[in-house]
Amino acid sequence: MTRSDLRADFDPITLEVIRMRLDNIVEEMGIAMIRSSGSPVITEARDYNTALFDHQGRFFSYSDAVQLHIGSGGVAVRSLLEAIPTEEMHPGDAFISNDPHTAGSSHPPDTTVISPIFFGGTLVGFAQSQAHLVDVGGMTPGGFAPAARDCYAEALRLPPGMKIFDRGEPVDAMRRLIANNVRVPVLHWNDIRSMVASNNTGIRRLQATIEEFGLDEFRNYTALSFELAEEVLRQRIREIPDGTFHSEEWVEGNGHDDGLIKVACTMTVSGDSIAFDFAGSSPQTDGFVNCSFGALVGSVATAAVALLGWDVPFNEGVMRAFDVTAPRGTVVNPDVPAPVSNGHLTTGVRATRLVTRLLSQACVRSGNLQVSRRVQGEWGDSWTGGITAGTRRDTGEFFVWFNMDGGGTGTGAQVVGDGLDAGGAMGAVGNMLPDVEMNELLYPSLYLWKRLAVDSCGPGTSRGGMGLDFAWTLWGAEETTETVFSPTAAVPPWGFAGGCPGGGSGFAVLRDTNLDRLLSERVAPDNATIEAATVEQLPVNAQGVALRAGDVLHCWIAGGGGMGDPLLRPASQVVADVRDSYVSPELARSLYGVVVDRGAEGWDAAATDAQRTAIRRARLADAEPAVSPTREVVAEITSAADAIPTVDDDGEWRCPACRSSLGTSPGWTAETVAVSRPAAARLADHGVKARDRSGGEQGVWLEEHYCRHCGTQVQTQLLVKP
Predict the structure, then answer these.
(1) What angle do CA 632, 374, 359 make, to 5 degrees?
(2) Kind of pairing, strands 322-325 and 467-474?
(3) DSSP E strands: which ranges in 460-558?
(4) What is the CA radius of gyration of the chain?
(5) What's the angle, vertex CA 486, arms to CA 417 and CA 680, rounded to 5?
(6) Would you tell me how many other CB atoms lie within 10 Å of the CB of residue 56?
(7) What is the pLDDT of residues 388-426, one digit of tens each?
(8) Measured between alpha carbons, how far is 718 from 493 in angstroms, rounded to an integer?
(9) Which end of the chain has fewer beta carbons closer than 10 Å to its terminal beta carbon, N or C?
(10) pLDDT score for 6
């Protein structure tokens, strides 16, 4: 049967059985890796991916641990096919690579192992496993190198085609070469073996599947699955009016200086396809924030699939509806020798934010509610990384600890409710936060607290999710060195449709504290009880920071952006936030306009109406020139879906609160009034924490747009200007 015949008369049960079989295989591959690895980055935090590809490098199925890796995984397999002729591949072979420039890796620690799959002597595909390994050599323990000036200083670079297993046996020369260049060789080699074990699991299961269905039927049905997934995506894109959308994001420093680096994206919706063009992004830099093209593709796919393909089988067909281009030699597609060890968690996640923003701006125009309600506030989408290296006091053993708590960012607000607290980055929603007890068991550390950062979520009708706030001290080591990076410090994630930006991230070291006395007196250490001789707020990127016994490392992590004007949040939800200590009574009044009392409902309805009216009037009075309101709020707002401007049949946008016109421009801000203020100070008014960057040539400003008729906030955006 040809595929055209199959397309006309296929068996949907067989199609679904094969698809689900492939999904189950990649999940079983991940289980095999977890059970054979010794690294908590894999076993506790699930910082890995597993996938199956066909013989041409198109992916059948992909595990749900780290979505960002799909770009680098695909590039790695295709690069292997270019480097090694298929006739030189044999059953039992495994090839290793980690070089972002030549093999597409997100960064050098994200090491890939690829194994060819044969059936009856025919190459039918590849099993691919990728995992973050805790050290890959280079100038800095842990593989993140803020001080690096080129990629040669960052890690041992393994290009495509390096054979690590030959017909089932380890290649000892490669093993010794790698072990000689990493700081934890036993753990490193065991993790490589765990990826080989993962691939072997995938090989056996795929061979059994092909044996069951036959090679021709298997190939026809997997090709049909590609086509159907692509069709669903393209149909949803057709529901979005054609248009071009542009925005910019900013990477905060490159490890050597504090300058902001531009990531620009122009998105074009045309018929049933979407093109993402990153022309206009800054040239590549000599710092570690350059993003490999493989990581860029994964960053784009992360947001595009989440917003448009949330229920579509994730295979090669999904990727065909999108086109990603980026000029060579830029921060989003660098050439050798650009350093790249943190590009995916800085520049890459900025690209994810951009795509989330641009797709939200496009989807809101759709007449299909299923598509238009995919809009959302931007996620915290960064990784607030801390890598600790030192020697244990009891055994004298050297250790490297990549603390996976750094992934606890808040997600963006949704039309159906608030963002998830500590939900993770959009590109790694399958990651998990490690247990405190497990970190303390594996590393010489003692946690003092681990809680939600209430000053991190973007306010709104739906608020963004909160990030984590945690602190720990050394417990079993005299001194360590820290490598830290907090990519979202001064330029936090945007809200949507009047929702406010989320908070930033950062690190501080509390030096010479009274911690020993507190513990001896059994007093719980917290912000109120810890006293420190100095509090050292660390730069956005730093390495070689000394941490000594008695010091405390404090970390706070970005939250998500809100959606809709905070004044439109139902008062009952604000009161619940006050009850949960997420919002203070003072902030409930000044930001949300809710006057909390002890009455039956928990708020004073008349006083709340008056307070919200006063805030709207004050907003318009702050504009230049000042404006007086001419309309009252008439809409009943029950969720963020009601707080988004709507467009009528004549292309005229309407304020969600008073139904007045916001104009007919592609956006809804042409006829609003706007007020710009330094971002950190204005966010502080919202109870949100961000690093101040209001001075100099690259100041960060928050611009708030209000309906000129009633004072409802309909848009906020962050601008970089003097």
Answers:
(1) 95
(2) unpaired
(3) 467-474, 479-485, 506-513, 532-537, 541-548, 552-556
(4) 26
(5) 65
(6) 11
(7) 999 999 999 999 999 999 999 999 999 999 999 999 999
(8) 9
(9) C
(10) 64
CB 499 within 8 A of CB 563: yes
- Alpha carbon dihedral 420, 105, 34, 482, in 10-degree steps, equals -70
The structure's pTM equals 0.95
Identify the DSSP state of 694: -
Phi, then psi, of 198 in degrees rounded to 5: -60, -50
| C-alpha to C-alpha distance for 641 and 568, rounded to whole angstroms | 11
CA nearest neighbour of 676 among 694, 712, 703: 703
What's the pLDDT at 99? 97
State the DSSP H helix or E strand holding residue 111, giving kind and residue range, or none if neither. Answer: strand 110-119
Torsion of CA 81, 86, 88, 93, to 10 degrees: 70
Res 376: pLDDT:
97
> Which of 49, 123, 109 is closest to 80 using CA atoms?
123
- Residue 491 near residue 593, CB atoms below 8 Å: no
- State the amino acid at position 4 in one-letter form: S
Residue 423 Cα distances to 23, 126, 401, 431, 543, angstroms: 23, 32, 22, 9, 27
Q: How far apart are CA 383 and CA 431, in angstroms?
A: 12
Q: Positive or negative CA dihedral for 646, 648, 649, 650?
A: negative
Q: Give the phi and the psi of residue 514 in degrees, each rounded to 5.
A: -95, 25
Mapped onto helix, strand or coil, the DSSP state of residue 33 is helix
The answer for residues whose C-beta is within 8 angstroms of residue 240's C-beta and 6 or more apart is 269, 362, 363, 365, 366, 371
Which pLDDT score is estimated for 2?
A: 55
What's the pLDDT score for residue 48? 94
Answer left, alpha or beta for residue 33, where phi above 0 means left and psi between -120 and 50 means alpha.
Answer: alpha
In terms of Cβ atoms closer than 10 Å to its own Cβ (0-12, 13-18, 19+), residue 393 is: middle
Tell the residue number behind the tokens 């797709």, with chain if given: 359
Tokens, residue 15: 């199609």
Cβ-contact 660, 646 below 8 angstroms = no
The three-state (H, E, C) secondary structure of 302-327, written as one string: HHHHHHHCCCCCCCHHHHCCEEEECC
Residue numbers in the chain where pLDDT is lower than 70: 1-6
Question: Residue 251's closest CA among 360, 332, 311?
Answer: 332
Helix (H, G, I), strand (E, B) or coil at 147: coil
Element (H, E) at 704: strand 699-706
212 three-state secondary structure: helix
What DSSP state is assigned to residue 52? E
**Contact 471/460 with Cβ under 8 angstroms?**
no
Sign of the C-alpha dihedral computed for residues 13, 15, 18 and 22 taken in this order: negative
In this predicted structure, what is the pLDDT of residue 665? Answer: 81
Q: Which of 34, 154, 165 is nearest to 99 (CA)?
A: 154
| C-alpha 51: how far from chain center | 20
Is the backbone peptide bond immediately before 116 cis, with ω within 30 degrees of 0? no
In the block, tokens 């069709």 appear at 231
Q: Are residues 153 and 139 in contact, defined by beta-carbon separation less than 8 angstroms?
A: yes
97 φ/ψ angles, rounded to the nearest 5 degrees? -155, 155
Reported as type and span, the H/E element at residue 211 is helix 185-213
Residue 106: count other Cβ atoms within 10 Å of its Cβ. 33
Return the structure tokens found at 650: 């004549």
Q: Token digits for 39?
A: 């690294």
Span between the terminal Cα atoms of the chain, in Å? 66
- Residue 5: per-residue pLDDT: 64
Amino acid at 497: A
- For residue 605, the tally of other CB atoms under 10 A from its CB is 13
Dihedral (CA of 583, 584, 585, 590) sign: negative
Alpha carbon 292 to its chain's center: 16
